[in-house]
Amino acid sequence: MFARRRYARISSASGISEESRKALEDSQESLPRFLFRAFGRRSGGDSRLNTPSRIIPRGFLGGKTPTDIYDIPNLKYMVDCHYRGGRIDTEFSSWAACITVACKFHVEI
Prior knowledge:
Elements: H1 2-14, H2 18-27, E1 50-51, E2 54-55, H3 75-84, H4 99-108
Antiparallel strand pairs: 1-2
């Protein structure tokens, strides 16, 4: 019973439905073998963010530390802005399962 109440609370605080949250959780069951990433000046190309040993999303530049994804206020808005390339200090880093998608993204930024 407690988990059910917490589940609903988190979903409403993050701005996503319980159905969307379940789909997100279920998607973790089939991760691709390889992931590729491309970035440029406008998308995390800051030298403080991308080094040979780590990749840090722009949202953590000011010293903010990662938390649970569902603790992000208005998660849906952040996801929408991140994927549309909006000017937002996103807490995400995009990866592609296909190298051609990563290369295409790099050419477009």
